[in-house]
Amino acid sequence: MEESLKNSSFDLGDAALVTARDVMPEESPWHNLSDEGRDNSGSLLPSTARLAELLGLDDTSAINHLLRTALLRPIAELTSNRGKWIRGQLVMLGHRLISDAPASVLALKQCRSCADVVELIHAGSLIVDDIEDGSRVRRGRPALHVQYGLPIALNAGNWLYFWAFELIRDAELPQDRTFYVYEHCHRTLLRAHFGQAVDLGTRVDALPQNRVAAACLASMKLKTGALMGFAMIMGGAIAGASERLLSVLDEFGRDLGVALQMFDDLGNVIGKCEPSKRYEDLELCRPSWVWACVANGSTPEAYKRFCAAAAKLPHAQELEIWIEEQNLMQRVRASARRQLDFAFRQLESRLDGHRTRWSKCAFDELRQLGEEITIAYG
Fold it and tell me: pTM, whole model, 2 decimals?
């Protein structure tokens, strides 16, 4: 890829995902969705014509209602209750970081489409994670499999992974960059499923204490890290970055993703984001940064007592005494902060090492996003 292709900034702002009411009217269940800052072609779900093309059927009237009920409505239900849109913002900021020309209309469309790609992949992963974890709540509402049943939720989550590839095509990137983004989307999904296999196949309390942190860190890099690296890659690809520079953006996204997951794991224990899911990671004995900090910073005897206390969940009194005595939350927060600072030091150093022009303003906005992560999660 040529280093010189340049597009610049746009404000993703508060662009909302599709809401349930957008797909429920009987007269037009597949109509294009638009909002402020999004043109009329910027739908997240297929239009009537697009649906017919994808299905390869001459007449879809017999199944429109079925598809709306069993696929589109559940997806709209989840995405209407959108989260913090951190990954979508990374596409825009990755683009701005290495661009210094006014944004074209095409560049705006490309960034929007690619932001949708990463957010919808994330949405699909949330559906599947909730099924596999047995979680009953997502963002303060019943999880999708609780509302619609496991088969419909599982199909919807998987469909979002494939729909993301269609949205990449819609971005109208040059052919070489389209192939590059396809390749990295596929790699990201593979890595995320490797990471989920680590989670599902690991009872942390059954691992030797000296292996716990490595297993937890691998899971974080393969899941959250990989998807945030992909978001940065897409922003850089739109800006025409070289493959070497795209690698820098990928590394930063992965480092930032690890920091986000550290803060998210902290939030699970303090019950900040979803109080009803407090201690879920500990109760399920799934890899998390809290487990890693306990394993790395505790004597064998103290670690044994922690595992015993976690095994008594949802009865948390003994666990909370241990956490207070060992100053655990402060230790987890400090290590997450170090990871966040490390991610930005490495990005600045790598950008300077490439002797390429980059935007200090966009870097500062990325840094601000990092600070927002610390507040939102931990």
Answer: 0.86
